[in-house]
Amino acid sequence: MLESINSSSSSYETLTLRGVKEAFSDGSISEPEALSKYAEWVKQPTWVCIPEADHNRVVYESVSGSFPAVRPPKYMTIYHFFRVSKRGNDIYLSKVRKKFIPLWSNCRSCKDIKFLNGRSGVGNLLFITLTYDTSICTKQEAYDNVGSELNVYLSDLKRKFGIIKVLRCFETFPASGYPHIHMIVEFLDHKFRFSYYTFKNGRRGYIISSNSLRKKIEGYWHSFANVQGVKSVGAVTYLLKYITKDMYADSFNTVSHLWLYHKQSYSMSHNFMDFTFKIYSVPLSSPLLKTNSNIFFVKPIFLGSFDVNFEVNERYFVVKDPPADVDLEVSNDRYPSLFRSNFKAFYEAREVSLNG
Questions:
Q1: Mean per-residue pLDDT for 298-303?
Q2: Does 53 reside within a domain?
Q3: Looking at the domain assignment, is residue 105 inside a domain?
Q4: CB atoms < 10 A from the CB of 49, how many?
Q5: Percent of the chain having pLDDT more than 90?
Q6: 175 and 324 inside one domain
Q7: How far is CA 269 from CA 150, 167, 179, 183, 307, in A?
Q8: Where does residue 25 fall: left (phi above 0), alpha (psi -120 to 50 degrees), or beta otherwise?
Q9: Full residue range of the structural domain in which residue 225 is found
């Protein structure tokens, strides 16, 4: 069921993944209807409010009595409002792109290097695509199981070949809606011998020279698997481009399925490709400092998230003093509804606005 929320000015419907999934599970809405809710959900602005003590603004209160004294300082409150990152909105995509900046940079430094060249060669990278046989199970079962099945597949690779690093993303077939997996696997303890090969569709690439070994790797997966050697960092940048852009350019077909079935869009092992880059003496870029925000909080309190029903352009703003008609002397469990119902007053009272 979808939650209906009353704001100070009107009544509107707040979409949540949990609500959509419950409605889909109990048959209230069909799968196409559930998937269509993604576009509404991602466009609906959701905010969080985090207050902190403003140590630059202190109110001292005198204590009555003959001996001069003051009570402990009472700090004024500053309220930080952040627009929530949702899978597919501008904040989410910005965070994803920033995460991959070091890898993009390393790939640019390595763009003229060929990992494989000529009629044959030796390398430690595989580009693997795992599809899903629709006769095995329903689409919902496929999404429910694909994560655990992928973990089993990768575990088999580790047992056979040792340490691996993985860059992985899901994609949804337009026709069937079933998931398939694209990933680049970096092997730190094993190298493969490859042969140049012309496929049935006319494309050329590198395959593992040993048919038995290639079939063994493909056989770890229950459905069709395509395993090829990686010629250059072009394969890496192809996946990065898909993760940071193209995944959202198919009318939300992929991302809406991943949202509804609660699947992680991508994953990347720590220090992915660093081992390979070092082999080719590529100067590695420093990883980005991981922070939740650019604001340093002193004992902040999370007051919850809430939706608003009017257009808001900022991603972040500060209110040093709440509007006069907003009563903050309420219990914590009422904060989300309080800020939701009074958000416009807070928004119009903002004193600092940071875009971007």
A1: 66
A2: yes
A3: no
A4: 22
A5: 60
A6: no
A7: 14, 6, 21, 11, 34
A8: alpha
A9: 111-279
Residues 331 and 238 both lie in one domain? no
With a pLDDT cut of 70, the percent of the chain lying above it is 83
Contacts of 193 (CB under 8 A, 6+ apart): 120, 121, 122, 208, 209, 210
End of a domain among 250, 279, 308? 279
pLDDT tens digit sequence for 64-76:
555 555 566 667 7
Residue predicted with more confidence, 35 or 352 = 35
Q: Are residues 207 and 344 in the same domain?
A: no
End position of a domain, from candidates 279, 312, 346 = 279
Indicate if 45 and 128 belong to the same structural domain.
no
Residue 101: how many other CB atoms lie within 10 Å = 12
- For the four alpha carbons of 83, 167, 151 and 144, in that order, the dihedral sign comes to positive
CA 312 to chain centre: 23
Structure tokens that stand for 10 in this block: 């009107």
* Same domain assignment for residues 305 and 275: no
Q: What is the pLDDT of residues 27-58, one digit of tens each?
A: 999 999 999 999 999 988 899 888 877 767 66
Closest CA to 13 of 26, 28, 2: 2
Please state, in angstroms and rounded to a whole number, the distance separating the CA atoms of residues 267 and 166: 8
Question: What's the 3-state SS for 245-279?
Answer: CHHHCCCCHHHHHHHHCCCCCEEECCCCCHHHHHH
How many domains are contained in the chain?
A: 2
Summary count for the chain: helices (H), strands (E): 11, 15
pTM of the entire predicted model: 0.84
CATH number at 140 reads 3.30.70.1910
